[in-house]
């Protein structure tokens, strides 16, 4: 019967129909002569109907088998099994259907293999990351915990299926407090001699229609210690350089002064002593600046009237107000903000800008205030812009690298931010934003 599979379906239907009609006509003629009745045609049709049904069933049996196979493979695809394929010897419409079905199976199989490989890669990365990861169901049940989480919270045991609240009851008190506060935060574990600092991040999302929570616990101690060592090295280099610049002339002039006294040449002593005093005062100011940066207290905010505050600044440094005077109030620590803006305005004067070109612009934002200090100096290149706000970074020969860093520290302590950008036409704009 394989030759039947090579005949198109339309021809099969036509051939069977014609054969049935011809057989029925022939049988009707025979019966009409025998029965002498016009009912012979109907009798012929009834007699040939079982034979037609038999041949139709036999002719379409392979096609019915194919349809059952198609249904079985579709059910397998639904269950995630893509290992099945179909074959059909014919060259009819069903052959095109089988070919399309097999192509679909191949595509699904390749996608499934790619997905499995990506899942394995992702699982390997998640399991071996140093960040502890916990995935919680809405009822607080742990559905996933990587190796770092097991080590931190479960002494190496699997965490899946345990309640996070039960696990948290045996965790350090600092972690319990960080979780109870909600949101992201920092907490420390251990004693002062062996303390580890962690960052807790919490994110919510929907998985399979249900709300889940992802907890990330990242250890910061090693990174912070590395940064701390680098910072201390830089501080020591800057302080050593500044101390040597002041102490070497002082030691040399002190020796010279002693020689002048021994020789009785006292007329040059005042000059030597004045230089020693100048270097000593410079060194005193340098140390005081570092101490002020290291011991910056928390700001004591209070309502400040802008016209009065700007008038106080003008009594200490020269600048012009860019735009119209703004009559309003803002909340900040007056002493700290005055120190920050004095540093920025003095930097503007030191850029080589004419005094009348040093400007301060004040603008009201929808949720705070923006203060811009403008100059017409040479501006900054990309490298300097990227590092200028870092403590102890300075391009000036005698600079301490604390002016901009202190201004940034004060702005961030008030919940604000500070940014540097070059102005069109030359110069620099230092922009400080303070929230209400």
Tell me the CATH topology of the largest domain.
Heat Shock Protein 90
CATH architecture descriptor text of the largest domain? 2-Layer Sandwich
Q: What's the tally of helices?
A: 13
Q: What would the average pLDDT be, to the nearest integer? A: 78
Strand order of the largest sheet: 2-1-5-4-3
Number of domains: 4
Q: State the end-to-end CA separation.
A: 88 Å
Helix-strand topology string:
HHHHEEHHHEEEHHEHEEHEEHHEE
Secondary structure category: alpha+beta
Low-pLDDT segments: 1-5
Helix content: 55-70%
Q: Hey, roughly how much beta strand do the residues contain?
A: 15-25%
Shape: elongated
CATH level-four homologous superfamily name of the largest domain: Histidine kinase-like ATPase, C-terminal domain
Number of strand elements: 12
- Biggest sheet character: 5 strands, antiparallel
Description of the molecule:
The chain is of the alpha+beta class. The radius of gyration is 44 Å and the shape is elongated. It has a five-stranded antiparallel β-sheet. A five-stranded mixed β-sheet has the order 7-9-10-12-11, covered by helices on one side. It has a two-stranded antiparallel ribbon with strand order 6-8. It folds into four domains: 2-114, no CATH class; 129-219, 2-Layer Sandwich (Beta-Lactamase), CATH 3.30.450.20; 224-294, Orthogonal Bundle (Helix Hairpins), CATH 1.10.287; 302-435, Heat Shock Protein 90 (2-Layer Sandwich). It starts with a helix and ends with a strand. α2 packs antiparallel against α3 and α8 (221-263) runs antiparallel to α9. It has helices at residues 2-5, 9-35, 40-78, 93-128, 147-153, 164-169, 173-181, 221-263, 269-294, 306-314, 334-350, 382-387, 403-413, and strands at residues 132-136, 142-145, 185-190, 195-207, 210-219, 302-305, 320-322, 329-332, 359-365, 368-374, 417-422, 428-435. β3 and β4 form a beta hairpin. The longest helix is centred in the middle third of the chain and has 43 residues, at 221-263. It has 13 helices and twelve strands.
């Amino acid at each position: 019967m394989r030759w039947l599979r090579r005949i198109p379906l339309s021809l099969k239907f036509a051939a069977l129909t014609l054969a049935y009609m011809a057989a029925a006509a022939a049988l009707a003629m025979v019966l009409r002569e025998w029965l002498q009745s016009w009912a012979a045609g109907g009798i012929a049709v009834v007699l040939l109907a079982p034979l037609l049904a038999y041949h139709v069933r036999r002719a379409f049996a392979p096609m019915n088998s194919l349809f059952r196979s198609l249904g079985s493979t579709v059910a397998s695809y639904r269950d995630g099994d893509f290992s099945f394929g179909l074959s059909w010897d014919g060259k009819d419409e069903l052959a095109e259907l089988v070919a399309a079905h097999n192509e679909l199976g191949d595509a699904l199989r390749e996608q499934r293999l790619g997905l499995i490989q990506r899942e394995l890669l992702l699982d390997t990365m998640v399991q071996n990351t140093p960040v502890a990861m916990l995935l919680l169901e809405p009822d607080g049940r742990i559905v996933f915990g990587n190796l770092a989480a097991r080590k931190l919270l479960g002494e190496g045991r699997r965490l899946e299926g345990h309640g996070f609240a039960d696990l948290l009851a045996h965790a350090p008190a600092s972690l319990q407090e960080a979780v109870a506060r909600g949101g992201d935060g920092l907490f420390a574990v251990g004693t002062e001699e062996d303390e580890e600092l962690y960052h807790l991040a919490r994110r919510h999302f929907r998985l399979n229609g249900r709300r889940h929570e992802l907890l990330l616990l990242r250890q910061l101690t090693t990174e912070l210690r590395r940064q701390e060592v680098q910072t201390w090295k830089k501080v020591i280099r800057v302080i050593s350089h500044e101390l040597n610049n002041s102490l070497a002339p002082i030691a040399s002039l002190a020796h010279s002064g002693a020689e002048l006294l021994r020789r009785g040449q006292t007329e040059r002593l005042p000059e030597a002593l004045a230089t020693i005093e100048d270097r000593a005062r410079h060194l005193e100011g340098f140390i005081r600046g570092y101490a002020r940066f290291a011991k910056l207290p928390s700001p004591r905010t209070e309502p400040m009237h802008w016209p009065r505050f700007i008038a106080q600044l003008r009594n200490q440094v020269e600048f012009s107000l860019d735009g119209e005077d703004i009559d309003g109030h803002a909340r900040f620590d007056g002493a700290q903000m005055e120190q920050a803006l004095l540093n920025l305005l003095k930097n503007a004067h030191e850029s080589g800008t004419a005094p009348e070109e040093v400007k301060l612009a004040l603008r009201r934002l929808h949720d705070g205030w923006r203060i811009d200090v403008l100059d017409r100096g040479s501006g900054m290149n990309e490298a300097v812009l990227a590092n200028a706000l870092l403590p102890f970074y300075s391009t000036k020969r005698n600079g301490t690298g604390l002016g901009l860093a202190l201004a940034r520290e004060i702005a961030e302590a008030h919940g604000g931010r500070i940014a540097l950008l070059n102005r069109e036409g030359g110069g620099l704009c230092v922009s400080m934003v303070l929230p209400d």
